[in-house]
Amino acid sequence: MKKWNKMQGAPDGEKAWKVSLAALLRERLLKRTQPRQEACSGPLIKLENLVKIYDTGAIKVLGLKKINLTIERGEFVAIMGHSGSGKSTLMNILGCLDRPTLGHYYLDGIDTADMTPDELSDIRNRKIGFVFQSFNLISRTSALKNVELPMTYARLPKSKRTERAKELLERVGLGGRKEHMPMSCPEDSARGLP
Ligand SMILES: Nc1ncnc2c1ncn2[C@@H]1O[C@H](COP(=O)(O)OP(=O)(O)OP(=O)(O)O)[C@@H](O)[C@H]1O
Ligand SMILES: [Mg+2]
Questions:
Q1: Tens of pLDDT along 59-72?
Q2: CATH architecture of the domain with residue range 1-130
Q3: Where are the domains of the chain?
Q4: Is there an atom of ligand 1 within 6 Å of 189 CB?
């Protein structure tokens, strides 16, 4: 496990620090007031000098050290590495579940680094599909309602989301189990539910 005890890039003097912080805040505020542009050309994913540092209080742990990666549209990529090499850390950032400490992550041409939690959750809802190792299903509700849930967050009308959820369940061979609780669905199919 790599550890990093010293943060880099401390600015010279308190004044310079305050000036650069004010400039950064102003830049971010300006960006927030402008609608985000949806890019549709260029790479789907682009990472530039991506760094993740976990601050555990006592020590800082380096999770990712300056990752540069480009993934084009339609490309299939597997991330491989030994235990502790940072796969989960990277996947959490790619999935917009976590943010990098330094560097940039452009998803569809848009930098996610300064997005608010609400904007990140919108991206997760609209652009990213997760297949979790553990199913993360709501056990007290039916397979149909579990599939409908992300569409509820996306504010799709009830009739549309039910129709779409039924279609998706049919596609993974669970058409006959719409009203079943997740525990009674076959493992491989349940993994595909959310
Ligand atoms: N929440 C955390 N707090 C502190 N350090 C963490 C945290 N999560 C991960 N790390 C550290 O970050 C580094 C990368 O860990 P990560 O879990 O991303 O590796 P991994 O490749 O997914 O490993 P595995 O194959 O065992 O799942 C490791 O040194 C790990 O100890
Ligand atoms: Mg892992």
A1: 999 999 999 999 99
A2: 3-Layer(aba) Sandwich (3.40)
A3: 1-130, 143-191
A4: no
